Amino acid sequence: MTFVQWICRGIKNKKIWLKVPPFSTSEFWVFQETFLKHEDHRLCSSKNYFYIDRHGRPGGGLLTAIPKNASGRIIPTGFSHNFNQEILAVEVHFQDFHFIIINLHAPQGLNIENVKYFFDSFSIPVFIFGDFNLHHPFWGSNRSSPLSNDFVEWLQNSSFILLNSSNPTYAAYTGSASLLDLSICSASISHAVDCYVSDSNFESDHYPVIITWSILDHTPKKIKSLDWNRIMSNSATVLTTNTRLNALTNKISKVIRDNTKIITLPAKNYPPWWNLSCHNFQKLKILFRKRALRLISESDWMKHKKYAAKLRFHIKKASRNYWDKICNITKNPRMFYSMLNRIYNHTNQEINTVNLILHNNHYISNPVQQSNLFADFFSANSVKHEPIPLDYCEDSNSHLNIPIHLQEVRQAIQKTRNSTPGADGITANWFKRLSNTDLTCITSFFQEVFTTSYIPEEWKHSIIVPIPKPNKDKTKINSYRPIALTSVFSKVFERILIQRITHHLLTEKKIPPSVNGFLPLRDNQLAVYKIHTAISEAHSHKKYFIGISLDIKSAYDTVYIDGLICKCLQLGITGNITKILHNFLQNRTLQVRWRHSLSGTKPVQKGLPQGSVVSPILFVCFLSDFSETLDEGVEYSIFADDIFIFCAHTALDHISKKLQNTMENVYKWCNYWKLNISPEKCSIADLSKKKLPSIPRIIYAGFPLPWKQTIKYLGINFSKINQNGIILKNIRSKALRKINALKSIAYKNYGPRTKDLINIVNNSICSLFYYSCSITNKFSETQYKACNTIQTMALRVALGLPKWTPNIVLMKIAGQEVLSEKIKRLAAQFFIRQLANGVHSPIYDQNCNPSIKLIKRDEVMLANLFTELDTSTDHIIAFPDTLISRSNFCEIFLSDFSFQNKAHPAFLIKDLFEEVVYKEFQDYHIIATDASKSHSFTSIAGISNLQSFVYRIHPINSIFTAEALTICQTLDELSVTDKNLLLLTDSYSVLQALKCLTIKSPKVIHRLAGKILVRKIFIKKLVWCGLQGIHSSIGMKRRTYSQKRSRSRIHY
């Protein structure tokens, strides 16, 4: 069902356009400013018309046209049709659907106070289309008015959702564009409604807005049921056979297919979390209820009650698991709208597809032809570049080319997400269920690939799923972006390579500090803060500051593969690993999956593969030498494919000359490495406080770069004036759009708990302010109040509370910290984290001296913070140097020995333990640790054959923290110099966290890692052995328990 909204500026002389799309393919027309008289309303014989004429006036007029097979009536509004307000409300019955279309025109701006009660009075779905003539940052304007502020306040507190908030709909004769024509619908149907703005204005100064309501029948819900026990047992048999990797993946795929059942549930509007258990228990509940009522049977009634209780349990469990996953998805703020689409599409996956695709002015309806068109489009311009002679220098870098270790495979599997598998159907869950024996087999297969440098063809094949871009015409191929599904086997192997490459790049300092992204400790906050400090320094020294933002056209898809490998060799990535990368990137293929059809296979000869784990870090390598293009005095910052070049100086001519020389060097560099920069999408701006005497003309490839009032870098708008105000306006408009979209699930009966909606608010809306906390912490109190208003507005939607609820009560119910206070706290944590990262942080050097000059307000804030805490930088837990090469100094055994199986009887465990110690650790100094926690205190204890200790620590510490602190204290007090050390502990979680140490690990684990690095000098070898569940079986529990009764204390 399609609607077209259009301010036509006189429809009588534009009747010819009604015979072409989108008008000819739309069932409903909603026109404003028709300029028609009463006798003129016969435009098309296939429509019924409802209209309002402007008697005695030259302009105006509203028209709503519905199909002939639909019925409708005009709803009396009770409003007088004055010069500034025309409203036409039509109630429509069409194909068993009942809804209302409101057509309005307010040339001087809509006063929502006059009509809001009328809009809110309907209980059925409502569409509101019209020319509102309001400006607000919510839909991209740079200004607002009291009328628009009132309208936005009503919209946020109503059950309506704004559909179009990005593309302009009005083009003025001066060339400026703005969004004046708004489309609004009820939140209850917003999940099935899509809209976009037409590319053509059809001889008007307003562009038509096309709205599609996908009223699809509920398709049968399909649920996969996997017999994991049989899958893993059969897989173990396959892995033990001496099979080549190509045949191995085929056999495992067959095992998974043979043990997978697709159970189809009847077509119904199921909740998104509905699973097979819920369905089966619901059927049993209904069955025994009917039997009990028919036979008057007490036993059947008892069974009905039993299955009803089980149904409630499984509904609660399924709902909570589903919304926990949704909240995890929204931890990445960019996944907010993807999360909404995932919820919307649970009843019918076809909601994001269309039956017609426009190609060469013809509509294609065949799914196979459509999939082939997509395949041709996504593989277009895939021409192989000329090869470069390469010498891989196989033995030049031993660390990058050492044999693959079992622990590397485990870590790679743990980091692999449970996403949709590739063409082979092997999921990440399969890898995570493998036993140690199976993992050893997988490691040997990976080692074979690494040694031979032969990449299986399945690893180089991608299944592409086209996903529509928001607010785009779905009938056009370029309105879709590709999502690649690749082999999980390949992803695990790529993660092993990435870990080695990342370690090499950082330890050898191969990547310049100005290149950020996809590397540890180089996040977008650091990139943004560097620009911010450079601008502030230019302001303080009264310098000119000119910034240029460069846009690389199809950055990943146009990477010169041989040139990339050549750069990898220059960065010291040599040997077999480089040969593997080269083979992996060459001769790739793709197929497109569209409407249950697969296209033909298409070759891809250039570019980095979509969906590949290795692509981001290789792109960083490709841009690593970009600094060679910079003239002296010009600086830059790169994050992924976003490039920002800037120069500050007291003389404007000096800046102009330097930037022009840099642009010429960039052009030569791009030509040499086969990259393209789009000058029309680049921007240049003056960000200084000084007034420019003249506008410098900076040219790239013969095209002058366009000057802008603001320049955007990593989501932050930098401006010459009112910097904080511009940043706040940009963040606020994004937050308002997300609050607007949040209503679509907050008002639906999808089962989200209040806690889930609050988590989504924190992860997706409030996080917009957290992202740039190192900048937003300098907001004024008035701007902080605006931030707090956004937070309370979002929480009211999440909690379903009215707008008159006091903010204090609202925050107490939600259990949330005030946004402005949290911004300040996160900003302090940002700078403290740089101190903790020490030598690895681009902001601080090894002596904690800032290498990037901090803004004075940040320096004062840090000094005051340390003064209030009565501490210094010496007490910050430093991040350990985890980037050291793997060595045999520290080994962790979680379940490698036979005595670590707690299923054995106690006497057998004790005998097995003594046997292992005698055979493997005879010359080791043995230490055992333990910790316990009660409601009143927490105790830690350690014992060896020479001495022991026991302390009580603050009861606020968790048992996890206590176990880690016990090990720290053990290394300080009980370790022996120049001997091997065997440390026994029953804390599996601490050893697992230490084994998978990352930047995001708990601070107490960082402290423990730091202790280990210090002890590396004094201890020959350190071995950790987990005794989870068997501590008491070998006598350690009794020894440490007697020690913990002591009343000694240590403060943590």
Features:
single chain; 1052 residues; alpha+beta; Deoxyribonuclease I, Chain A; 4 domains; six-stranded mixed β-sheet; 19% strand; disordered C terminus; RT_dom; DNA/RNA_pol_sf; Endo/exonu/phosph_ase_sf
Helix content: 25-40%
What are the low-pLDDT stretches, counting only 5+ consecutive residues below 50?
A: 883-887, 1036-1052
Main sheet specs: 6 strands, mixed
The spatial strand order of the largest sheet comes to 3-4-2-1-14-13
DSSP strand tally: 38
Q: Mean pLDDT score, rounded?
A: 85
Q: Count the DSSP helices.
A: 29
Rounded to the nearest angstrom, the distance between the terminal CA atoms is: 65 Å
Strand content: 15-25%
Shape: globular
Question: How many domains?
Answer: 4
SS-based structural class?
Answer: alpha+beta
Structural Rg: 33 Å
Organism: Araneus ventricosus
Pfam family, one: Exo_endo_phos_2
Domain Reverse transcriptase: 448-718
Keywords: Nucleotidyltransferase, RNA-directed DNA polymerase, Transferase
Characterization of this structure:
This protein is 38% helix and 19% strand. The chain starts with a strand and ends in a 9-residue tail after the last helix. The strands form 10 sheets. A 6-stranded mixed sheet has the order 3-4-2-1-14-13, with no helix packed on it. A 6-stranded mixed sheet has the order 5-6-7-8-12-9. A 6-stranded mixed sheet has the order 33-38-37-34-35-36, sandwiched between helices. The longest helix is centred in the N-terminal third of the chain and has 32 residues, at 298-329. Helix 3 crosses helix 11, helix 21 (781-799) packs across helix 22 and helix 26 packs parallel to helix 28. It contains 29 helices and 38 strands. With 1052 residues, it is of the alpha+beta class. It folds into 4 domains: 2-213, Deoxyribonuclease I, Chain A; 406-719, no CATH class; 723-875, no CATH class; 891-1048, Ribonuclease H-like superfamily/Ribonuclease H (Nucleotidyltransferase, domain 5, 2-Layer Sandwich), CATH 3.30.420. The radius of gyration is 33 Å and the shape is globular. The model is unreliable at 883-887 and 1036-1052 (pLDDT under 50).
